Amino acid sequence: MKVSHKWLQTYFDAKIPDADTLADLFAMHSFEVEGVEDIKNTDGSADSVLDIKVLPDRAHYALSHKGIADEISFLTDMLPKKRYVEALSANADHCPIVKLENDKFCRRYIARCIEINSKAGLPPVAVPKAGLPAVALAKAGSNNFSAYLKSALESIGQRSINPIVDITNYVMYDIGQPLHAFDADKVKGPITVRSAKEGEKIVLLDGREIILTSDDNVIADEDGPLVIAGAKGGKRAEVSESTKRIIIESANFDPTAVRRTSTKYDIRSDSSKRFENEITPELAIHGMNNACALIKERYPNAVFGPIVDEYQHKSKDVIVDFDPAYVKERLGIEVPADTIKNILMKMNMGVVAKGNIWSLTIPHERLDLRIREDIVEEIGRVYGYEKIAGKLPAKATTDPITELNFSVSERLKNILTGIGFSEVSLYSLVEKGDIETLKPLAKDKAFIRKNLTEGILSCVHKNVLNADLLGLDSIKIFEIGRVFTHNQENVVLSLGSAQVKKMKGVNGGVIIENAIKEIFARLNIGLSVPKIISQNQSYACEIDLSEILSLVRSVSNTGSKSSSVTSTSAIDLEFKALSDKRYTKYSQYPFIVRDIAVFVPESIDSNGVWNTIEGAIKSADASDLLVRHLLFDTFKKEGKVSYAFRMVFQSMDRTLTDDEVSKVMNAINVSIKKEGWEVR
Amino acid sequence: MSNTEMLGDKKIGSLHPITQIVREIYGTFRDLGFEIADGPELEDEFHNFDALNVPHDHPARDMQDTFWIKKDANESKQHVLRTHTSSVQIRYLEAHKPPVRIIVPGKVYRNEATDATHEAQFHQIEALYVDKNVSLAHLKGVLELMFRKIFGDDVEIRFRPSFFPFVEPGVEVDMRWKGRWLEMGGAGLVHPEVFKAVKLDPNEWQGFAFGFGIDRLVMLKFGIDDIRSLYNGDLRLINQF
C-alpha cells in the first residue's frame, strides 16, 4: 500500500519524522516497508511515498493513512488529530429506501441523497474554508480543493476521475472505508442488498460484463444489479460529469463472501481488498460523514437529505482479560507494568485493573486483537523485540530418537559418496506423471514425477558432456527423493552412472550394480539388484526406500549388533564438519580438450614434464584458459617413458576458438623440443 | 591447478550442499534434544492450511502461491503440494504427545515465476518446540546457536514483527552477517488455534516454531548466486563441495 508522507503529516500539528526514519521505525515495530520514493506531486510540491506491506492481521486497521498515522502515534509520543467529523445535518427530505435481504452478508448499510447543485453541470471550484478535513488540506499547502484531492490521489498512484469519485476514493485511502456513489437519477425504486439471481448480468465500470450466480451479492434497484457488493461498481448508475443528484453508500460486507466473488471474477479492487480483510461496521458512519463534509466543501450549495442507516446487529465492545505477568512469560523479558499500560493506552484501549487481571476494551477497528497472545505481540513489538536476550531451553529429559527414514537416507548418502557417487537434487515438476497440478508454471512442468530414473538418466547424460571438464572417467550420481503415483508417495533412491573413458567390461550398469551390492553389504541386508535401465550409454535404477527400511528394521528386530544402522539412536550418524568452501562460478562457454603424449628419458618424472608444459602455457599467456589437466597414461619402452596429459581449455568470458588453442599447443611443442624430448 | 591429478576417477563423491546444511542444523538441534520428523509433500488442505489457522477464503491464503492438485472424480479431499514444512507440525502433534522437540527438513513448493532467487521447489527446515513454558527468548536462543554454528560466532539475529497465521506473536528473523542484515525466515510462538486443531489445550501447552528456506542458507554460506543451479544436477557445482 502506498502512503504519502505529506498526507500523513495532515494528521499531526508537529512535524513527523521523515519518510526514511518512518520506514525504519515501521520495519522494526510494525510492518515491512518495501520502498520509499521521493516524488513531485502534480501541484509541484515534493513528497515521499512509502510502500508499506500490510499483512492480513493488521489490514483491519492499517490499510489507510489514518491507520498508518495511528501507528506513528503508537511508536512515538505524537498524538494524531481527530479525523472523524460530525454528521452534516440534513437540509432536504429526499432519502433513499434501503432494503437488506441478508443482514449476515451486509452488516451495515448507510446511504444518503445529495443534490450537488440545482443548476445543470458542475459548479465552479470552491475555495476551502475551516472545517475538517479541509483544514488539513489547507495546512498541506493547497488552496485549491480539487487540485489537492487530485494531487493527493496521484501521489499514491491513483487516477483522478471526477470530483465525486475522487472524494469517495480519497475517503477510502484516508480512513479505510470504501464508499460508492450512484447517480441518483439513474436508480429506480428502492436500493436492495440481496443475493444475485442465477444468470443475472451486470456491466462493470470498465465495460466488462459479468454473469452472476446465486452465491454473489449485489446492490440492486428495480431494474437489476447496480454494483457487485463490495467489489466493483456497475456502469448503469455511474456518476458522470452531468450528474446532479447522487446517493452515497457507506456499507460493511462479509469478508468471506466478498473475497469469494472477487476471486471468482478476478475483480480484486482496493474496495474488495479492504472488505476481504474485514473492517469494523463502526467505520461506515465516519466514511459517510467525512465524505459529506468534503462534498460540502467542493459544492457549497449542495443539499443533503437525511442519513439512512441500516445496522441491525451493532458491534459490541470486545473485552480481553489480560494478565500483565503473561508478557514476561511469553516474551522472556520483564517489561515494567507502567510501560505495558502506556503502550495499551496509546493504542486507545480502555484499561481497567481488576486485581491482577486487566480488563482491556479493544478499539472497534482492532479486529486483530482478540486473545492475550495478540496483546503480547503489541507489547513486544512496540517495546522492541531487540530487547529480548536469547536463552536456550532447558535440556531435554530424554535422548532424541532419529527417525529411521532419515538415518537410513543419511547412511546411504555416506556409503554412496564414499564410493564416488555425488548427490543431486532434481526437479519434482516434470512433463509426465500420474498427479497433475491445476495451474502449472509451464506445460512441461504440469505433473509431479512418478520416478527418479528419468531425471537421473538425463542428468547423467548432461554431465557426460562435461566429463573432461570435470576430470571424470565416469559419471556417478544419486538422488534420494519423493515419487508420486495415484495413491502413494514414496521415498526412492536412484543411482545413475555412465562410464566415459572406455574400459573393458565396464559400463554404467556394472558400476551401479557394484554400488548396490556395496550398499547391501554395508547395511547387512539381502535384496536383489533392481532393474537397471539405459539410454545413450547412461544407466539408472531406483529402489524404494521402504524396501530397504523394512529389511533394516527386521535386522534390527533380531537384535543383531553387527550393523550400526540397526540402532536408531541419533549418535550413530557421523557427519563431517560443514565445509567453509566458497563456490567458484563455472564458465558458461564451451571448452576444448587437447591431449599430448611426451617421450622422455626415465630420469624425468611426470612433474618435470608438466612443469615444462605449464611454463609454455604461461609464456603463451594462456594460464587463465587452462581449467584442468590430467595425467591419463604412462608407459615405459626402451629406457624411455611416455607421459600422456589431457588438458581442458575454457574461457570465463568467451567461446575459445581452435586457432587460439592450437597456438598454445604449438608453444608447448616448441618447449618440449627445446628440452630434447619427443612429442608422440 | 598446480598439482597434477592422477586419475580421472572421483574417489569420494560430493554431498549436495543442501544435505550439508541440513546435517549441520540437525547436529545443532540433536544436541538440544530435537528429533527429525517428516510428512508428505503431497499434502491435504487441512494439514497445509486449515489446521494451521489459514481458513478457506481468507486473505492469508494469498501469502503463498499454491500448487493445487487436479482432483480425481472420486476424491473428496483437496490436495496441494505442501507450501511449507509447517504441515508437519500438525502431523506430528496429531501422533505425539508433548513435550515435543522436532526439526523437519523437506522439499516445499510455490507456484511462482522462477528467477535467480525464486524457485517453484525449494527446501525448508522447520522447528517445533512444545513444552510448558516457552518464550520468544528461547526461540532467539536456539536461532542464535544455529546461525552461529553455520555462519560464525559473530552473527547477530533480530526479530521484526510479521504475520503467519499459525504463530502469535509472529516474527521475521534477520541475521547480521558480514555487516549486513539479511532476512532469513519466519518464526513465532505457536498459535492457540494450532493447539486446538490437534486437540491440545493451549492453556497447558506453549511452543515456538520457525521455518527457514534452506536454499537461502546454502546460497549465503557457499556463495551460490542462483537458486536454480541447486536443482539442475550439474556436477560442475556439486562436485565443488
Description:
The complex is a heterodimer of chains A (680) and B (241). With 680 residues, chain A is of the alpha+beta class. Chain A has 20 helices and 29 strands. Chain A has a five-stranded mixed β-sheet with strand order 4-7-10-11-12. In chain A, α11 crosses α13, α12 packs across α13 and α19 crosses α20. The two termini of chain A are 73 Å apart. About 4% of the residues of chain A have low confidence. With 241 residues, chain B is an alpha+beta fold. Chain B is 26% helix and 27% strand. In chain B, the strands form two sheets. Chain B has a seven-stranded mixed β-sheet, with helices on both faces. Chain B has a two-stranded antiparallel ribbon with strand order 2-3. In chain B, α1 packs across α4 and α1 packs across α6. The longest helix of chain B is centred in the middle third of the chain and has 16 residues. Chain B starts with 16 loop residues before the first helix and ends with a helix. The N terminus of chain B is likely disordered. Classes of the chains: A alpha+beta (680), B alpha+beta (241). At the A-B interface, α2, α8, α11, α13 and α14 of A face α1, β1, β4, β5 and α4 of B.
Short characterization:
With 680 residues, chain A is α+β, with helices and mostly antiparallel strands. Chain A has 20 helices and 29 strands. By secondary structure, chain B is α+β, with helices and mostly antiparallel strands.
Topology, element by element:
The complex is a heterodimer of chains A (680) and B (241).
Chain A (H helix, E strand, L loop, with lengths): L1 E3 H5 L9 H11 L2 E9 L5 E8 L5 H4 L2 H11 L22 E3 L5 E10 L18 H6 L5 H11 L7 H13 L3 E5 L7 E5 L5 E3 L5 E3 L5 E5 L2 E5 L3 E2 L11 E9 L1 H10 L5 H7 L6 H16 L4 E8 L7 E5 L2 H7 L5 H10 L3 E5 L2 E6 L9 H12 L20 H15 L3 E2 L5 E2 L4 E2 L10 E2 L4 H12 L2 H4 L3 E12 L2 E12 L8 H16 L9 E3 L2 E7 H13 L34 E10 L4 H14 L6 E12 L2 E10 L8 H17 L3 E2 L1
Parallel strand pairs in A: 4-7, 18-22
Antiparallel strand pairs in A: 1-3, 2-3, 5-13, 5-14, 6-13, 7-10, 8-9, 10-11, 11-12, 15-17, 16-17, 19-21, 20-21, 22-23, 23-25, 24-25, 26-28, 26-29, 27-28
Chain B lengths: L16 H15 L3 E2 L5 E3 H4 L30 E3 L5 H9 L4 E10 L11 E11 L4 H16 L4 E7 L4 E11 L2 E11 L1 H6 L8 E8 H9 L12 H4 L3
Parallel strand pairs in B: 1-4
Antiparallel strand pairs in B: 2-3, 4-5, 5-9, 6-7, 7-8, 8-9
